[in-house]
Amino acid sequence: MIRVGIIGCGKIADAHAEQLIRISGCEIVGVCDREELMAKQLYERFPIKHYFSDVDALLESAKPDVVHITTPPQSHFDLGRKCLESGCHVYLEKPFTVTASEAEKLIGIANASNKKITVGHDDQFTHAAREMRALIRAGYLGGPPVHMESYYCYDLGDAHYASAVLGDRNHWVRQLPGKLFQNNISHGICRIAEFLTTESPKVVAQGFVSPFLKRMNETDIVDELRVIISDENSMTAYFTFSSQMRPVLKHFRIYGTKNGLVMNHDHQTVVKLRGAKYKSYLEKFVPPYNFATQYMGNAVGNIRTFLRNDFHMKGGMKFLMESFYKSILEEAPLPISYREILLTARIIDNISSQTNAQLTSKLPPS
Amino acid sequence: MNMLAASTHSIIGRSDRILITGANGFIGSKVVETLLLEGFTKLRCLVRSSGYMTNLKKIMEAYPVGAIEICEGNLLSRDVCRRAVEGAYVVYHLAAGRGEKSYPNAYMNSVVTTRNLLEAMGENGKAKRIVCVSSFTVYSTARLKSGEILDETCSVEDEPHLRGEAYCYAKVRQEEIFQECVKKYHIPSVIVRPGVVYGPGNKGITGRVGLSGFGVFLHLGGSNRIPLTYVDNCSQAIVLAGIKEGVDGEIFNIVDDDPPTSRQFLKLYKKHARGFRSIYVPHHLSYLLCYLWEKYAAWSEGQLPPVFNRKKWFAYWNGNRYSNRKIKALLGWKQKVPFAEASRRYFESEKQQGVNR
Asked: Which residues pair with B194 in a beta bridge?
């Protein structure tokens, strides 16, 4: 039986608890929030043994094997270190840490403590993401990727909703180097990082404040971001984050020398892009028909998965948790490599520093 | 002479400071306006951010400079709470978390904030009363038969986390911590529970009438009465609850006279605001659907979240009647805007918003 503790009882902790209670062989032995009332409300709504307002009390009394840290990212490093050094494995919500240097140190501490750590990139483990990965591993692309496109957009909603999110000048999201986008893009960046072959990709980022936010007198929150990422082996990638673009895409497109694939996270579809062309007018008739049958196949597959009761909104999180626990119990490989975590952190660091420099250069001289 | 002054022995003077939390909200801004109309001259309005005061700005432009003092901050900060309650004789506590689909957000912005505010009031020791603006959502009507009257004596949900509504859970727990803290700090208090507050600025049709989002509007209310209260009428009741002497410790439901049935309201809405297709779902069928959804949500371990369930059906579509006898008897409240005029204003606003959309 794996004994799990949760630190931080906000919105994402609910998703963790919902998935944890679905995993056989694990129990939530304690939850902790420095605001005791928040810990109490989570404890009250789920089968949880104890609640705490002090991390040391959680670690000493509940004695968890794994701690899920679901606090704002500014506290990830210190809490992660404390838990690792106390002998616990750690599941850290995204973004892993505030900076890449913190990420490197934390992974170093995990290795030194002989404990394991992972990050909440659960979108990498949805049905569609796993199907796409299986196709790539089976050689569908015809070799390493040539180019990738990752869209990870975010709907700020209407002005009223946005004001509730952005109205608090002291909100922790505003204290991140990349502010709003840093709290969101790791899901989209890690998809690219998974396939990059270099440790130091070249990153060119262009970020700006959308007219929507400018109308709300926001001047320093980048909500439109376009990035080009390339590695020394001539593999390239585009990354797009947008609060205004419609539809609100969460797509990943990957192209090899032979074929390509398109994965739509929201629709949970994977579509094959055939590289070879048909002769003459057949190229106008056969591919559209192929696409139609593929989309129909995706729809039928999704319905089947739903009827099998295996289509939960956060099903990817359950898969990631189970894989992480398996890696702990059976000394199996980690579901997310440390290399992928670090590459993701480095790319986000790079994007933040470039967009912050762009914002600074636009400020009027003091 | 204004209506409230004629009927009220106030516990405070017109120049005593009043704090309104959630002052920029749909109801909060109307409470501010009502207090100004009553001649109160020192209103401290707590807002999360001064950059987003769309409702309050209009009011500030129409009233004398200095009557409204803006206090910016979040009630999650104890410093903000101390600053906000300093020198306040009456507090109208309207700030709350809607939560949408998030229980923790709703809870944090309703329960933790209420605890912080009352702790600050306990330290300050000056307040003559705090009014907690709760909601009809806290009631459990599972033990009421269809057609029976829901009033202040009815029981509150004992397992609010099973309603499938973050707002209900947060409001029930907010009332609990409110009662606990006012007792602990000896703060005179009143709780008000408005029904469905409507008026210009509040978009859409209440779920008590039916549900959109399934491709067609499902009309579930049928012949049920909707506990409507027009925002002007509601804010008058809230203001009275804060200043009327002799009502400490009371709980008041706020609902207008003779609310329409769901069917009547929907018909009027379609005629005067915008037309759309709707399907009537009979009561027994809607109950069965809620029951099946509840069972499936449990069996499937939340593949469909338990947003429809029997608790919710009883709360929304059981078909109860509502009483406003207590606010009339103890607060001297009278409905200022009749339904015909209130609905005309509301439908006009809905129509305009539809045009803008």
From this structure: B254
Instruction: Summarize pLDDT for A326-356 with one digit per residue, the tens.
Output: 999 998 999 999 999 999 999 999 999 999 9
User: Is A263 contained in some domain?
Assistant: yes
Q: What is the mean pLDDT of residues A168-195?
A: 93
Decide if A163 and B52 are in contact by the 8 Å CB cutoff: yes
Class of domain B3-199+227-257+319-338: alpha beta
**What DSSP letter does each residue of B164-185 carry, written as one string?**
S-HHHHHHHHHHHHHHHHHHHH
Q: What is the pTM of this model?
A: 0.94
Determine contact: A311 vs chain B, CB below 8 A. Answer: yes
Tell me: do A207 and A225 sit in the same domain.
yes
Shared domain for A33 and A147, answered yes or no, is: no
Do A131 and A246 have their domain in common?
yes
CB contact set of A253 (below 8 Å; sequence gap of 6+): A148, A149, A150, A260, A261, A262, A263
Q: What is the mean pLDDT of chain A?
A: 95
ipTM value of the model? 0.93
CA-CA-CA-CA dihedral for B118, B119, B124, B129, to nearest 10: 20
Cα–Cα distance, B169 to B171 (Å, whole number): 6
Instruction: Kindly identify which residue of chain B lies nearest to residue A169, measuring between CA atoms.
Output: B49
User: Min CA distance, B113 vs chain A (Å)?
Assistant: 11
A60 to A29, A54, B310: CA distances (angstroms): 12, 10, 41
Q: Are residues A149 and A110 in the same domain?
A: no
Inter-chain residue contact A37 with B74, CB threshold 8 Å: no
Q: Which of B105, B108, B158, B169 to mutate against chain A (most A CBs within 10 Å)?
A: B108
Q: Please say if the pLDDT value at position A360 is more than 90.
A: no
Q: Give φ, ψ of A316 to 5 degrees.
A: -65, -35
Same domain, A83 and A130: no
Residue A225 is inside which H or E element, if any?
strand A224-230
Q: Where a domain ends, among A119, A147, A175?
A: A119
Give the residue extent of every domain in chain B. 3-199+227-257+319-338
Convert the pLDDT of each residue in B214-235 to its tens digit.
889 999 999 999 999 999 999 9
> Chain A interface, mutation test: which of B29, B48, B357, most A Cβ atoms within 10 Å?
B48
Number of domains into which chain A is organized: 2
The shortest CB-CB distance from A38 to any of B52, B112, B299 is to B112
Task: Show which of A93, A119, A145 is a domain's final residue.
Answer: A119
**CATH code: domain of residue A106:** 3.40.50.720
Q: What is the pLDDT of residue B5?
A: 58
pLDDT, average across residues A272-298 = 97
A308 lies within 8 A of chain B by CB: no
**Domain that includes residue A233, residue range:** 124-316+348-356
